[in-house]
């Protein structure tokens, strides 16, 4: 998100589902956007997009740890590439369950892929990896959770209210009129980006001026301007849709008894959890609790000041550590 550019549609394909049933009730025609890397490999891996992620901006490891796999990057519902408020009239609020159900149809009915070697995701993509593992136990063999968790904490829920309020409170917002929420106007773009940029890394990151030494911005103002303009190509309703889905993330919702610990205990897949020690949204403490309840869980803690952004590909050093951890984890599963 630090160096915004024009939208990149290279290699993106679409799969249409004529009648898709949403958890919220209605059946609607939808589309699922995706891109394949290394398609000749017989072993497939799903990489779902995350918050602020588009298909071609998502860290996919296709040239690193996953170079020997057919990597399919799939756009989550609500991100503007797959069906979203901005391109699908009357779409209900999507949930992670909807994303996984749509992906499953893409893989089984369109790509003819009988199983996934792994689901690898960052942030909201990491939460989808947990949902994948619980919802499709015979289909997903491994899950790699990067800077994410099986449920959104109360603290993260409150943090996410900040950017949501920045969008809703900005000039031009009209409740119920989604067509009026295009984020092209300066006030909404700056309000959302200004809130997000402070929480993406950590206090130490700003203290050490990595915005200058690593990213090349001369001043903190230049950095903030870049963050604010990162969302030029986004639609406000899509951003709000993703924030709401993130806030509702909780695999306990997949059980009638809503027992979070039992949901984790019922996951059969091997799970690698990679967490940043300075992540504001997903803390190492929460990940350590999850590991205790997973049958086959492993934990890697990144000693980094890049905060949540450590898992996004923004930090070369952290990306190298993550890439090696994924490669080692998948090697042990063979």
TrEMBL record:
Gene3D superfamilies: alpha/beta hydrolase. InterPro entries: AB_hydrolase_1, AB_hydrolase_fold, HAT_MetX-like. It comes from the Eukaryota. GO terms for molecular function: acyltransferase activity, transferring groups other than amino-acyl groups. Residues 52-154 form the AB hydrolase-1 domain. Belongs to the AB hydrolase superfamily. MetX family. PANTHER family: HOMOSERINE ACETYLTRANSFERASE FAMILY PROTEIN (AFU_ORTHOLOGUE AFUA_1G15350), HOMOSERINE O-ACETYLTRANSFERASE. This is AB hydrolase-1 domain-containing protein.
